[in-house]
Every structure is written in C-alpha cells, then in structure tokens.
C-alpha cells in the first residue's frame, strides 16, 4: 500500500512537471512563432495526456476480479497505453508535421525572440536528459539478462516502462533536433531550419507511435511469458518425474500477473501422490518468478508408476 502511494505521489510530481513544461513552451511559441517550440508544446501536451490516461488504466487494473472479469482488469493498462500510442502520439505527430510544413511553405514565416526559444529548449533538454537517465536506471534494474535495449523493450511486459522510456527517449531526440534547427536559424537568419526541425520532431513522434502501437497490440491481444521467464518455467518442468509436457501455455493478465496452464505426463513412485507433486511444482514456479503473481493450473491425465 505504501509503495502504491509513493508511485501515485511520483506520478503527480511528473504530471506537474509536464504541465509547467507545457505552459513554458506554449508561451514561448506564442511569443516567437517558432515551429520547433510548437512541436515541443505538443510533446508536453502528450506527456500530460499520457500521465492522465495511464492513471485511469492503473485504477481500472486495481479493481480485482469480478463476476464479469474473472481474472480482473489488469490488461486495462495495456488498453490505455494503446490509446496513448495510437491517438495521442500519432495525432500529435501528424499535427506537428502539418503545422511545421505550413510554416515551411509560408514565405512570411519568421522566428522572433530566438534567445528565448533557445533558453526554453535548453531547459527542456535538461529535463529530458534527467528523465531518460531515470528511465535507463529502471531498465538496467529490470534487464537482468543484459539484453540489447530494443530487444529488452520488445520483451518487456511492463507497459509503464515501455511507454515512459520510449516517449522520453524520442522526446530527447526531438528537443536535440529542435536545438539544432533553432541554432541554424539564428546563425543563418533563415527560418526554414526552424520549420525543418519541427517536421523532423513530428516524424519522431509518428515513429514512436508506430513502434509502441505494434508492441501494445501484441500485449493487448495477449502475450505469453517473456523468454527468460519461460526458460525458468521449462527448467522446473524438466523434473525426471515429468515424462512429457503435453501442453504448456502462458498468458500475461497484466504486467504483474502471469497465467500458466500445463498438461503433463508423470511417472511417480508408488507412494507419491500426484496432487502433492503438482503442488510442489507450482510452488517452485512461483518461487522462480518472485516479481510476478503467478496463477498455475497444472493437470496430468496419464500417471504411471
């Protein structure tokens, strides 16, 4: 309970940071007319909506089981993450590209208050670097198999980590491009670089939307255990008393919940009870996956002594 309260407090602090960032960037955009600041304002707006939708998803996921939802609503987090990826990221990216392209084609487009724009962008850069560093520490803590980053993100069943780290990483790339664009505009006096920076930032948002939509579609449909968790399960089922794994299926009910269904053939000693052996196997699996709430349903139709 205490850990949940800490997570909620941290989320409120992050949301407040994003709201302040949005106000700062939006004011800067209205004063300067900069396409890159418009793009960064969209990024911050996405961050705010993202936090709100994820909070809704988490509240739904905590409802537990009911008569209608026998295994609870844990995958609500996957649904709302998909909504963020498909509507907020994709829509924000398209809006950024369209508006920046309009500025690019507008011969009267100018960027005023370039020093203010640069100052806001460097503050944003510091915020994004800090966010990526925090996310990277969490990735390293969870990536016990030392997998390459892209493979780890694809393997991860943690929607919050996948969405948050990916968004922060792409946002860091976007603000870097924005700084380059506004710097070239300041050096050359040509606002075309500002517009191009806004377009590239929008394309990054669209790329993030495509990547996340693919991953969350897979999670929403129902992914099984990760490769490392599945390996741990199979190692336990390699017990000499298990002569055949007739069927083995796994399903993530939420980032923290895993359903395991297995049909085994056993060869037990005459004095060994099948139910006792299966209970032992289930306990071993749960101990091997301490970070998950595991639901095991194991049966055996053929028992030979």
UniProtKB/TrEMBL annotation:
Location, primary (coarse class): membrane
Keyword Ligase: no
Keywords of the record: Membrane, Transmembrane, Transmembrane helix, Transport
Cation efflux protein transmembrane domain span: 13-220
Transmembrane segments: 12-31, 78-98, 161-184, 196-213
Superkingdom classification of source: Bacteria
Subcellular compartments: Membrane
InterPro entries per record: Cation_efflux, Cation_efflux_TM, Cation_efflux_TMD_sf, SLC30A9
Bilayer disposition of the protein: Multi-pass membrane protein
NCBIfam families: CDF
Identification of the protein by name: Cation diffusion facilitator family transporter
Organism this protein belongs to: Enterococcus entomosocium
């Amino acid at each position: 309970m205490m850990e949940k309260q800490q997570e909620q407090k941290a989320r409120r602090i992050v949301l407040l940071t994003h709201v302040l960032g949005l106000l700062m960037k939006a004011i800067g955009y209205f004063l300067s007319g900069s396409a890159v600041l418009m793009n960064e304002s969209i990024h911050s707006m996405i961050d705010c909506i993202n936090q709100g939708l994820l909070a809704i998803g988490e509240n739904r996921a905590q409802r537990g089981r009911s008569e209608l939802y026998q295994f609870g609503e844990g995958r609500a987090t996957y649904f709302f993450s998909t909504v963020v990826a498909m509507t907020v990221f994709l829509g924000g990216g398209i809006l950024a590209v369209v508006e920046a392209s309009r500025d690019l084609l507008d011969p009267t487009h100018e960027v005023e208050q370039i020093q203010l724009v640069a100052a806001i962008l460097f503050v944003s850069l510091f915020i994004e670097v800090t966010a990526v560093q925090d996310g990277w520490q969490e990735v390293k803590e969870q990536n016990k198999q030392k997998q390459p980053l892209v493979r780890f993100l694809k393997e991860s069943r943690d929607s919050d980590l996948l969405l948050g780290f990916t968004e922060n990483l792409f946002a860091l790339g976007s603000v870097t491009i924005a700084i380059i664009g506004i710097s070239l505009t300041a050096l050359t006096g040509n606002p075309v670089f500002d517009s191009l920076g806004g377009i590239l930032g929008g394309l990054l948002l669209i790329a993030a939307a495509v990547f996340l939509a693919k991953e969350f579609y897979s999670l929403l449909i129902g992914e099984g255990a990760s490769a490392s968790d599945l390996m741990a399960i199979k190692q336990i089922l390699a017990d000499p008393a298990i002569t055949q794994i007739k069927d083995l299926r796994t399903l993530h009910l939420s980032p923290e919940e895993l359903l395991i269904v297995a049909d085994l053939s056993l060869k037990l000693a005459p004095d060994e009870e099948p139910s006792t052996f299966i209970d032992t196997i289930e306990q071993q699996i749960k101990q091997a996956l301490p970070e998950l709430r595991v639901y095991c349903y194991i049966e055996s139709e053929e028992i030979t002594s």
